[in-house]
Amino acid sequence: MADLLWETTVDVLSRLSAKDLLRCRSVCKAWRSLIDGPDFIKMHLNHSIETNSHMGVVISCSDPYWVDSDTLESTVRLEALPPIYGGERIEVLGSCNGLLALTNRNGDMVLWNPSTRRSRSAFDILTEVSVFAFDFVTEDYRELSFPDQQNNEKSYIKLGEYGVKESWTKLFSVVPSNVTGKRVENVMISGMPDGFDHSSTFCVGGLVGVDGGFNTGKKPAGENGNKIKMEKQSCN
Amino acid sequence: MSSSSTTTTTTRLLMLKASDGVTFEVEEAVATKLGAINNMVEEEGSEDLICLPNVNGKFLGMVLEWCKKHANNNTNSDKGNDEVNKWWDKEFVMDLDQNTLYHLLMAADYLSGTELVDLLTEKVASMIRGKKVEEIRETFKIKSDFLPGQEEEIRKKNSWAFE
Description:
Mean pLDDT of chain B: 87
Helix content of chain B: 40-55%
Strand order of the largest sheet of chain A: 3-2-1-12
Radius of gyration of chain B: 20 Å
Order of helices and strands of chain A: HHHHEEEEEEEHEEEEHEE
Oligomer: heterodimer
């Protein structure tokens, strides 16, 4: 009986959904450390984007459902919601690469990956929001200038965790209320049927890897380790 | 044993020799679907006999069968080729036993048959989708190397994925 080459195993696993991968993590140590690694997460995200797979739409904020965007058939009620869901009115600030940024009336904010059902408090992020930008091309940080508040142009902001090379896993786009004063109206929903209520749907694009950058055990290096920087991304 | 091409004789024929000495006569247009052979043809030019010491005749034959089918489908009518190829691909991988699948995957990889590697890798992935951890371990002959309790902890953390 032949064995699979390790590269083949990696290729195979990168094609699986987050749910399958969460189970595969408990197959053996080698698989677990592969699946949790930033390189694999990046590979998985790229594969999802290239092949348009594992895409879904999250519908309704207070009682969210997941719809597979390929088939629009299976509607799954999302459970194991982040603690921010507690009868409070939830707003989705934005989404990117499978992560949603949620906030409630108290101003609590979390980053949530509906594919893996993992979340992390993002309260500390807000304090840093207007300072730095993360440039995806150069994978470097630079200062960010916010668009004029009078300007109606929609601004999308991507966040990255400062000081970590793989910050892309922790990125999402946001329209901060202090910039536009309103929630995101339309987030990259393509191929949805007419009449679909866009105002309460948020496309969860290419799935972020299992850990989605929420591995709280890993603190980024440097004194500014836990702070989030952002980038303005032009939209439409 | 040699497979002969019965179609047009105007195209150039290549002779491929597998590790066990089995030879295949294949149209150049078919064989060059494989990146490795395409490179050899381009580099060596006039060479008509290509030795492939890393591929066994059985699996080389199967890889070439796949190439031929795809080459034929693509020369027929333009419309519906993708559908035909997809249907044929499904048939091709349906009854592969795991040992053959692995060897074929290695052969396709060695020959740089990107599309075929993709097809076979998808087949392996389908052996994991929706399966229980124990089933995955059995399929891939993997023994759990977690400490007692460790695995339980991983499961508990993401229990929804195990339902």
